[in-house]
Hints:
By secondary structure, this protein is an alpha/beta fold. It contains nine helices and nine strands. The strands form two sheets. Strands 5-4-3-6-7-9-8 form a seven-stranded mixed beta sheet, sandwiched between helices. The radius of gyration is 18 Å and the shape is globular. The chain starts with a helix and ends in a 7-residue tail after the last strand.
Amino acid sequence: MASNEERSRLKAHFSVPESNHPDRWSKLWDAGDFLPWDRGLPNPALVDTLTQRQHLVGTCFVDDGTGRKQRKQALVPGCGRGYDVLLLASLGYNAYGLEISDAAIKKCLEEQKTYAHKYPVHGQAEGGGTAEFVKGDFFSDEWLEALREKKTFDLIYDYTVCASEASTMRCTDRDQFLCALPPLMRPAWAHRMSQLLCAKPSGQLICLEFPTYKEPSTGGPPFGVTPNTYLEHLSHPGIELPYDDAGQVVEGARPQPSTGGLERTAHWQPEKTHEIGKGTDWVSVWRHDQSPNLF
């Protein structure tokens, strides 16, 4: 486990009003001397989901409505150095990585240029997709406008690991993603995911749920979550939900899904994941709820 000093450093860095958290992430990137979210490779759980569970998430292609195939558009918010974005491109997706600082985008471009050999095209029949890195705030539309025609995505990947819980001083992907966010921002996170995810049944949100072993009352980042945290908020995007005294979202407080709500189509514990999450990580797959009364 990380030392108390290491945990205290990260917690103190974010002991500011929640509205200032994006700036605090950016400052970590700009300083460059404390970047504890980098394991140097995509999470094995994502690799297995995309390659071994295509019956759940589909392939890298989607029908364009005229019977022709087009590449799915994928988004990785808070993409770190871009490992997952480059993985998705190697599997045939046109992938976008979103980060909040120029320094972070520079790291992504360095990874793409220097280590392209680590991301060979997975299937010759499918071919490779593209990888593009975009600076922006997840909750703002400015970065979307820079992408011109792209307003929603066929696949979104959400995952955060933070140094204060790592056995070494390294972790994977962070930014706005869910366990990096203060609990009061969870309704906005769910609403934004609902906005950005394609409404077709083929639109898929993949969440790697972490850290499920951590008590919510201990604070963060990362903030402790449970599978129910995802289920309640994604079923009711944008809605403030009640929490109990232990910091857990109250299950079933709103029994019916809300407009724009997502439904969980699969949920499992991965055989492979980063060391810190073994035995406690969960993977969930989501799509827009297809119930007629929600449209």
